[in-house]
Write a structure and sequence with these properties.
CATH class: Mainly Beta
Number of helices: 3
Helix content: 10-25%
Organism: Bacteroides hominis
Shape: elongated
Order of helices and strands: EEHEEHHEEEE
CATH superfamily: YjbQ-like
Strand content: 35-45%
Distance between the termini: 5 Å
Largest sheet: 5 strands, antiparallel
Pfam family, one: YjbQ
Oligomer: single chain
Protein name: Secondary thiamine-phosphate synthase enzyme YjbQ
CATH architecture: Sandwich
Family: Belongs to the UPF0047 family.
InterPro entries: UPF0047_YjbQ-like (IPR001602), YjbQ-like_sf (IPR035917)
CATH topology: Jelly Rolls
Amino acid sequence: MATTFDIRLPHYPRGFHLITHDVLSLIPELPENGLLVVFIKHTSAGITINENADPDVRHDFNTFFNKLVPDGAPYFIHTEEGPDDMSAHIKASLIGTSVTIPIRNHRLNLGTWQGIYLCEFRDGGDRRKLSITILE
């Protein structure tokens, strides 16, 4: 059995943000066992799983991706929404749009140091919408 619903996150500024608590607070109690699929409904932000303890990890992610895909590169032609437009789309494609997490004993079966990240690549990003599917 699968249950799917949409949630809307609070606004987050550009950067990498742990949203595990946000997701869990906006969904019903998890089943005893199953899978949780988190899908972001945007092309300029991504979802990933990574370290949830040291904030330096989030800083380093941001630094790396901004060097890898700089805003306003002269070879970008899709720039209608500003210099971070095309770079945000590329970064979102590199990170991806979904994660799948096992559920065990009514809890996300994440590793000790793992958390769900919203990767916001726009300076003026809106409140992001997530589609959540719980598979039992």
